[in-house]
Write a structure and sequence with these properties.
heterodimer, A: 114 residues, mainly beta, 6-stranded mixed β-sheet, 4-stranded antiparallel β-sheet, 12 strands, 0% helix, B: mainly beta, 7-stranded mixed β-sheet, 11 strands, globular
């Protein structure tokens, strides 16, 4: 079975700092990868996803992620964070073409200080 | 974009009672829906996969007699927490997967508090 690791449990940054959240997965085959965000008191929202093609994926709100197959990684990045980016971020994976459910990482709480 | 609703958003009940939570896909069909449980400061833990027209598939450790799932139509799945106890207090989130794709859309969640 696949698994997802997010090594940063809590990240604190000042506004305008650059962000990189790590995500590694374990699965031998082809996968679809996702980053979700959960703002305080709100439901999960999709930030971006990778199915195939260009490994550098751009999502909403200036976020991007790079799929590095050799490292089984899908790190999330943003050049300059804002206070409004304070939220919980979840990486998730599902085997390509699978009817199975998403497997989530443990999440990373991002706090951006004004 | 696709929208998933959950009702109620918040419920408080006495120990021993049953609570039903509805999950609806508002503008798409979803043969498959998922029920998750989220504890404070933790990730989503999959409880079961709800399949329209067939029995739900439960994850290991989830009591199927306690968490009853009914996928009544292509747009509605319900989770009933039977004989609720304080340890069942949690945030329950559903998601629905579009029949035409591989993407899941999440509901806003239901906060259950059992007194």
């Amino acid at each position: 079975a696949q698994s997802v690791s997010q090594h940063n449990h809590h990240v604190i940054l000042s506004e305008a700092a650059s962000l990189e959240l790590g995500c590694n997965y374990s699965y031998g085959g082809t996968v679809n990868l996702f980053w979700y965000v959960q703002y305080p008191g709100q439901h999960l929202q999709l930030l971006l996803k990778y199915f195939s093609g260009d490994p550098l994926v751009k999502g909403i709100k200036g976020f991007e992620a790079e799929f590095i197959k050799s490292k089984f990684s899908f790190n999330l990045r943003k050049p300059s964070v804002q206070w409004s980016d304070t939220a919980e971020y979840f990486c998730a994976v599902i085997p390509s073409g699978s009817a199975r459910q998403l497997t989530f990482g443990s999440g990373t709480q991002l706090t951006v200080l004004p | 974009g696709a929208v998933v609703s959950q009702h109620p958003s918040r419920v408080i009940c006495k120990s021993g009672t049953s609570v039903k939570i509805e999950c609806r896909s508002l503008d798409f069909q979803a043969t498959t829906m998922f029920w998750y449980r989220q504890f404070p400061k933790q990730s989503l833990m999959l409880m079961a996969t709800s399949n329209e027209g067939s029995k739900a598939t439960y994850e290991q450790g989830v009591e199927k007699d306690k968490f009853l799932i009914n996928h009544a139509s292509l747009t509605l799945s319900t989770l009933t927490v039977t004989s609720a106890h304080p340890e069942d207090s949690s945030f329950y989130i559903c998601s629905a997967r579009e029949d035409t794709g591989n993407e899941q859309f999440f509901g806003p969640g239901t906060r259950l508090t059992v007194l």
